[in-house]
User: Fold NAD kinase from Fructilactobacillus fructivorans.
Amino acid sequence: MKIAIYSNDGETSSRIASELSKEIEKAKDLEIDELNPEIVISVGGDGTLLSAFHHYDDLTDKIRFVGIHTGHLGFYTDWRDTEVTQLVESLKRDNGQSVSYPLLDIEVDYADGGLPDYMIALNEATFKKLFGTMVAKVYIKGELFENFRGDGLCISTPTGSTAYNKSVGGAIISPKFNSIQVAEMASINNRVFRTIGSPIIIPPTESITIVPEVSLHNVLTYDQLLIKDRPIKSIKFKISKRRIYFAKYRHTHFWQRVSNSFIGDTLNDD
Ligand code: NAP
Assistant:
């Protein structure tokens, strides 16, 4: 089985990546292949897994991810940095087991008439303005839904719902729901601009389109990436037909992960 290791630059991550690489090279039937891997192991945090996902973006349908965390337990990282040997044993016994999660498709039309861009996000996309308030019409399934004025909008996947979306008051959504969520960032509500004021959840049969007032100060982010300094005419968001796959050698229940990450030890305090 062909394996790629994708590590962040941290001292611990680099050491773990090198340890892992040696163990894989020693194992029969496992080999390192950074170009055409079947399994990608990210070493770092959730942010590292996001980078690994975009690095192997065009291979998403063919690969499965595994995350080793070198800091705290993450949403995409199941293995501790002390478990390299156990992970290699699981890789040797691999029988293709996997779990998959929804991704977000983003289609951007530019005001300069250039060709549209198509991107994909694992966590979310946000659309906001660097100076002043972002103004946009928001359409659901092609029908005008609201006139938005405020800091911006965050459109997230279920696994991204614990990231930026949570910070702006969005709900945490189990990744068993094939859905996307739109959460507002500091909307202004008055007689001209009236927004729904609460997060909304969109099924796979529907799309969200943002048609902003064209401005060079608008910024589109998707995970750690961004588009700026190019005026955007409209952006369409929908659930992707593609999904991200993880090798499922062990299973941490989603809500257990949420509890571990956000509630922590206080559960045991009396
Ligand atoms: P970063 O700004 O260095 O770190 C963002 C933090 O979000 C890290 O602690 C990261 O965990 C955590 N994170 C990433 N994905 C997560 C998920 N699905 N659920 C819960 N926490 C998650 O940026 P980064 O590490 O490159 O990650 C990019 C992400 O940062 C974006 O996709 C966005 O979700 C998030 N972000 C959040 C805010 C906010 O909450 N106000 C603002 C900007 C960006 P690790 O420490 O394990 O890497």
The radius of gyration is 20 Å.
